[in-house]
Amino acid sequence: MRLIIVSGSQRQHSESAKVAAYIASAAGQYKTVQHIELCKYQLPFWDGDDKSKSAPGCDWPVISEALVKADAFVLITPEWQGMATPILKNFLMMCTPDDTAHKPALLVSVVGGVSGANPIAELRMNGCKNNKLVAIPDHLIIRNVGDVLNTLADEALSHEPDQSIHHRDKSIRHRIGYSLHTLHLYSQALGKIRQCQQQQPYAQQEQYSYGM
C-alpha cells in the first residue's frame, strides 16, 4: 500500500516538514511512503480551469500521478491566523475525485503554542467536499511543536532535559502510531469500497462527481 504525506507550510525547513519526516519514519505499515512538500513545487493559484494544471512549468501532472497511485493520505498544515494555509487549500481545490475519491486522510495541525484546533475544523468542514477524500475520525494536533519530534542531534543541542517535555514527546509519538494504525485500517477498507464502486457502478453516477 502507498501513503502520501502532504505538508502544507509555505516555508522551507518548516516544523510541518519535520513532523512529516517523523510520520514517514513511523509509517511502517505502508510499502511506499512519499512526502510531498508543497512549497517545493510550482502550482498555479487555482482558477477553476483545468488547463492551468498542464501549463508550462506547472508541477501538477507529477503530483497528480502520485495521488492516483496512493491508498491513503496524511495532510499536514501549520495554523496560520487560525486557519489552514493557502497553499494546502489551493492543493485541495486542485484535487479531483479521479485523484483522491474514497481514500482516507489523516488530518494533522502543527502549532508552536497550545491552539491548533481551528485548521482541523476548517478542513473537516470544506477540505474534502469535491475531491471526496475521507477524513478519518482521528486527527492529530502537534502542539508546542518545537519541543517534540526532534532528532537525537537536535536534542543534544538542548541543555538539561525537561521531564515534562519528554513525557509530551513520548505521548505524541505513541498517539501518532495509533493514528497511523487506524489510517491503515481505513486504507484497507476503503480500497474495497473503490473496487466495488468500479465493479458495481450506480446508474449515471458520473453526474455526482461533486459533493452537495
TrEMBL record:
<feature type="domain" description="NADPH-dependent FMN reductase-like">
    <location>
        <begin position="1"/>
        <end position="143"/>
    </location>
</feature>
<dbReference type="InterPro" id="IPR050712">
    <property type="entry name" value="NAD(P)H-dep_reductase"/>
</dbReference>
<dbReference type="GO" id="GO:0016491">
    <property type="term" value="F:oxidoreductase activity"/>
</dbReference>
<keyword id="KW-0288">FMN</keyword>
<dbReference type="GO" id="GO:0005829">
    <property type="term" value="C:cytosol"/>
</dbReference>
<dbReference type="Pfam" id="PF03358">
    <property type="entry name" value="FMN_red"/>
</dbReference>
<keyword id="KW-0285">Flavoprotein</keyword>
<dbReference type="GO" id="GO:0010181">
    <property type="term" value="F:FMN binding"/>
</dbReference>
<protein>
    <submittedName>
        <fullName>NAD(P)H-dependent oxidoreductase</fullName>
    </submittedName>
</protein>
<dbReference type="InterPro" id="IPR005025">
    <property type="entry name" value="FMN_Rdtase-like_dom"/>
</dbReference>
<dbReference type="InterPro" id="IPR029039">
    <property type="entry name" value="Flavoprotein-like_sf"/>
</dbReference>
